[in-house]
Amino acid sequence: MMTRIVLGSPVKCHIASMVAAGLMIHSLGRTSSAQQVDLSPRFELGATYHYVSSSRIENEIQIDSAQAPEKIRVRTKAGMAFKVMRVEPDGSATIAWTLKYLSISADGMIPGVDGMLDYDSRTDAGTSLLAPLFAGFIDNPVSVRVDAKGNVVDFQHVGSGGSINPLGSLLQGLMSKQAFEQLPLMATSGAPNFAKRGTTWQRTTSVEMPWGSGAIAMTQIFKVKRFDPRRGTTVLQMRGTLTKANSNTPAATGKPPKSTRNALKLNAGSTQGTYIWNHKAGRLQSAESQLTIKTKINTLLGPANLTQKMSSSVRYVEGLSGESREAG
Fold first, then answer.
1. Tell me, what's the pLDDT at 302?
2. Whether 293 contacts 8, CB under 8 Å
């Protein structure tokens, strides 16, 4: 899942996803004699699904080629709940997306953040100086309306508007529309209603870059690898690439740069992963993915090369109190 400064979008990707939880989609899960699985979503009114996501993000920043790069490692873990609040005749639904808990830590200093970043909402809520910043995001549901295929139609943002404070920008991104669209739970939103082995589909989402540098487009191609009839699951393989979406972006100050020539340059970007989709229950069972982004962006000290690598996982659990026990 676990960000606009060094953390960037990967935190959103995993969680947020951050992260990045199975959309409480309940499909019919039918399998025909030709080994075709029904991936069409069905939202069950009142159903609640819980997921735990975790990520490890390695950031390497080099502002001056003559100096050794600065390395920062960030770890995140989040518990999320998704409840179907309303189902329409056309198959669309309104979902309450709630961040139940969040832990985030870094083994280095994040530019623009005073002190080390180390917080766990389950144990530090009453003692940490960071608690007030996180308070508005924990147990504060976001209302998301999706169509019958799981695509986001409407999104009610949580908290106040964007902040130029790095940590404030990070928190705003945790529960954003962009973060929701990047969750693994959206994997089948572009899939055909029925899929067989070898079926592929494509989806493109926007990834916000660090330091307010704008966005890049992440295009993912999903492929059905195999079925497990006994468990009622479908294994999906994902591979993707990243391309520049917008070069007219602000620099690290949050203000328009004097020149936008080098505001954002994407040198390379790729992603891959394996998703387990429970077609009997119509939801994500688990997912593991890797993301690598190499960019050059403007900073107050000059152009900087940023390499960001993230490994993330998400799994379905039967209640967050039993998160160590994966549910079937």
1. 75
2. yes
**Nearest by Cα to 1 from 213, 242, 182, 215:** 182
19 — pLDDT class (breaks 50, 70, 90): very low
CA-closest candidate to residue 312, choices 283, 274, 281: 274
pLDDT tens, residue by residue, 58-97: 988 887 766 778 888 889 999 999 999 999 999 889 999 9
Q: Enumerate the domain spans of the chain.
A: 10-320
d(CA 211, CA 13): 16
Q: Write down the CATH number for the domain with range 10-320.
A: 2.30.230
CA atoms 190, 293, 113, 110: torsion sign: positive
Reported pTM: 0.77
Please determine, for residue 326, whether its predicted confidence score (pLDDT) is greater than 50. Answer: no
Which residue, chain included where needed, has tokens 């709630």?
A: 98
In 127-253, beta strands by DSSP E: 142-146, 152-155, 194-195, 200-208, 215-228, 233-244
Query: Who contacts 98 (Cβ-Cβ below 8 Å, separation ≥6)?
Result: 80, 81, 82, 83, 139, 140, 141, 142
- The SS3 assignment for 191 reads coil
Nearest to 143 by CA among 91, 98, 188, 185: 98
Helical H runs in the chain? 10-14, 131-135, 166-174, 177-182
